[in-house]
Amino acid sequence: MEAAAKVKSIFVYPIKSCRGISVCQQAPLTPTGFRWDRQWMVINNNGRAYTQRNEPKLALVETELPNEAFLEGWEPTGRSFMVIRAPGMQALKISLSKPRDIADGVSVWEWCGSALAEGAEASNWFTNYLGKPSRLVRYNAESETRPVDPKYAAGEKIMFSDCYPFMLLSQGSLDALNKLLKEPIPINRFRPKYKSESYNICLLSKSILCLYVYSICFSLYIVGVMF
């Protein structure tokens, strides 16, 4: 069977609303999307998620994971870290081993539950960077489930993504848009997880996997964030 689309790029965003990582060769799939994608997010002192819509400085926060983190079957050790960088800040290391502390009353969009708290060092780092009380939390898959809106994809689930496990952007759509603009917009302004050469279905890996397009993306404000 001929592939309906060719995948040109894969992007993973470990921290919600922060910069993504371009994955060169492979990214393990999980029931909630790519492994590590939107597994963390920054929250305010009420537990509500920050996004680029209200904190555009998050667009300058870079994340780095070990190369082996994208290998199938790899598990972190006590020496495995995510490194976080931002302008004017010292690099912050976050252990990939799950923390034990729990943060209750965490919310993003319609969902509210508990999450794993990454500790005082991470809280101080983001508080200093954003200039307001902040905490870094990690999705707790052992105790929480966040379902996709059943009107669109009943039975599917996500972590801290806005709506769906994946976002697909076609190269043709980007090219057509840039022809209308004075200054072309790069791919990272759209924050896709896949960039493909077609619109509808991607066929990936050794077995056939289908991506069903349930809805268009509504992140128009995010595209306008300049960085």
Automatic annotation (TrEMBL):
Keywords: Membrane, Transmembrane, Transmembrane helix. Residues 134-227 form the MOSC domain. SUPFAM superfamilies: MOSC N-terminal domain-like (SSF141673). GO terms for molecular function: catalytic activity; molybdenum ion binding; pyridoxal phosphate binding. It comes from the Eukaryota. This is MOSC domain-containing protein. The chain crosses the membrane at residues 199-223. InterPro entries: MoCF_Sase_C, MOCOS_middle.
